[in-house]
Amino acid sequence: xxxxxxxxxxxxxxxxxxxxxxxxxxxxxxxxxxxxxxxxxxxxxxxxxxxxxxxxxxxxxxxxxxxxxxxxxxxxxxxxxxxxxxxxxxxxxxxxxxxxxxxxxxxxxxxxxxxxxxxxxxxx
Length: 124
Hints:
By secondary structure, the protein is an all-beta fold. It is 0% helix and 50% strand.
């Protein structure tokens, strides 16, 4: 059974930074497409960043481009989301997800496994 666990959420001030981590059991993340999603209060879940298997490509939503960076550590079987220059609009529950073969058409499509989420709150 594949399980994803997010960590690193918390409270930050506007302009601050947080780094989210996603770790997996039962799967090697390097062989999967791994994405970060978030769900803001009153909004639908949105995909904000993704790294393709073996780090071949990256995707960022316009809302986070230039502020967030996705990366992976193969040795630790982890994927990170470095979030800089945070604003209150980044307040959300952040989820890690992974897509196993057959892969979706896009990096954020067809995720098979989901973590339970970690809360990020940015104060003004």
